[in-house]
Write a structure and sequence with these properties.
alpha/beta, TIM Barrel, two-stranded antiparallel ribbon, 11 strands, binds iron/sulfur cluster
Length: about 220
């Protein structure tokens, strides 16, 4: 039987992006295909294994209408999600995917069951990892067939040239897609980003919906 490694299942408010403040059930998968410098999740070593049926039961118990699949990278579990999502859809749940926006082929496998996609565009000057521009472009072209918004984490050493590249990718798909600049959180502390106004100006010149939003759950002190 197919099982998935899950770090935690919990009820809270959405702390990021355009659904900020909404009550959701979060399913946090273990593991990721990337290695961002600011990542807390990669340090987590504990998980439990769930079958599809066990996960559906656990989600129903939390009683929220919206279920956010997050990680780690949930698309690493596309085969497993193909079993879980149809059951949740049948029961009327809204399916929200939080993804690093690099695994287009995996996205296509579960696309039919998704309602909202929150995808990252990783800025190499923030992540200290390799550029992923092509992966993000290919991913966004498909994700834009659903409701989608894009988030990029910005840090003290984020470069304007990376913001420009992210903006060009979004504008090339649809300039009305929301672009959220999220100041990095180190531990529980939100970093002050002096360049954010410049980044906002650059983004706002080419996109219709740009926002500067920190992780609200960190400010509120909730999970
Ligand atoms: S994509 Fe997310 S989970 Fe993966 S390494 Fe980066 S911050 Fe961590």
């Amino acid at each position: 039987m197919l099982k998935a490694k899950i770090v935690e299942i919990f009820s809270s408010i959405q702390g990021e992006g355009s659904y900020l403040g909404q009550a959701q059930t979060f399913v946090r998968f273990y593991g990721c295909n990337l290695n961002c410098a600011f990542c807390d999740e990669q340090k987590k070593k504990r998980f439990e294994e769930y079958s599809a049926g066990e996960l559906v039961t656990a989600v129903i118990k939390k009683k929220n209408k919206v279920v956010s699949f997050t990680g780690g990278e949930p698309l690493l579990y596309a085969d497993f999600l193909k079993q879980v999502l149809p059951e949740l859809k049948k029961k009327g749940f809204v399916i929200y995917l939080e993804t690093n926006g690099t695994l287009k082929n995996k996205l296509l496998e579960i696309m039919d069951f998704l309602d909202i996609i929150s995808m990252d565009i990783k800025l190499p000057s923030s992540t200290k990892d390799r550029p992923l521009w092509k992966e993000h472009r290919d991913f966004l072209k498909e994700a834009a067939k659903k409701e989608v918004f894009v988030k990029s984490v910005i840090a003290k050493d984020t470069l304007l040239q990376d913001i420009k590249k992210a903006v060009a990718i979004i504008a090339g798909v649809n300039k009305r897609i929301f672009f959220i600049l999220q100041p990095v959180t180190i531990g529980d502390k939100i970093q002050k980003i002096k360049s954010y106004k410049r980044f906002m100006e650059e983004s706002g010149a080419k996109l219709d919906n740009v926002r500067f939003i920190p992780q609200a759950h960190k400010i509120l002190g909730v999970k």
